[in-house]
Amino acid sequence: MTDSGIPSIDLRPWLTGDAAVRAEIAATVDQALRTAGFLLVTGHGIDPGLRAEIREVAREFFRLPSGVKEQYAVKVGGRGWLGPGAEANGYAEGTETPPDLKESLSFAAEDPTGAPAVDAEWFLPNTWPAEVPGLKERVETYLGQLRALSDLLLELLAVALGEAEDFFTRHTGHPTWGFNINWYPGTDTVGEPQPAQFRIGPHTDFGTVTVLDRQAGKGGLQVFTDEGGWEDAPYDPEAFTINIGDLMARWTGDRWRSGRHRVLPPPADVPAEELISLVYFYECDPGTEVRGIDSHTYLRAQLDAITAG
Questions:
Q1: Which one of 68, 91, 150, 259 has the fewest CB atoms closer than 10 angstroms to its CB?
Q2: What pLDDT sits at residue 2?
Q3: Which residues contact 155 (CB under 8 A, 6 or more apart)?
Q4: Longest C-alpha distance within the chain, in Å?
Q5: Looking at the predicted structure, is the pLDDT value of residue 124 above 80?
Q6: How many angstroms separate the CA atoms of 228 and 75, rounded?
Q7: What is the mean pLDDT of the chain?
Q8: 8-305 domain in CATH 2.60.120.330?
């Protein structure tokens, strides 16, 4: 357990342990998701070297001239470059903030289902910038690993909820997901932050589980709890940071809470700080009904809500 009360879960005992070990892990997860909505996860088996390579190649793209990047520009929910001012995540919870101080390369599910209307909205081809040809192979390898990890996490969450192990994964046969490579440059790129302006404004995520590979920094991730308010998120370079989103909270009848979080602006004492986060948003199959709402009608509304401008 970290100082913030967010537990660090080693997945290896979950995969190999006896019933008593698994029950203890499930109970720890249940308690954590009732409070902060966050976990750290180790023992996932995903190579940190691959994550480092993705960062380096993506950094090459983000440092290109704006005119080059513009040819890949898209709106929130698209597949391509989200430039400065594209998002204001605080709007998802009704908080008016200036646009977020970041740029993103955004990818999403693309394998078609065969249903034309569904595919046209949720399963379109990804865009791979020609200027960084090494990105596609690395990202596609990583995404395959993250989908498998997300299903494993959903199995753990199902048991923690007291349900059958496939309670959630029976709805992830052909799921939607999103993947953002978020670049948080320093003030030399974004300028001085406006009042109440963040690298990412306060919000909760929209889907089931989010798998975050983050870098430590003064202008980094903070999480919110009723007991502690806003606190710096715990950091372990070997761990993924996991939080649940609104669909998962609703699925549990609000037994668990969406992990509210924000990313601080560039710090005044380290204005040149640059961070890159790899963020995988897992969802569920289109058409899944979650306690009376259509999951993807909800997801589309939330994506529209954070679109700035």
A1: 68
A2: 59
A3: 165, 166, 168, 169
A4: 58
A5: yes
A6: 35
A7: 96
A8: yes
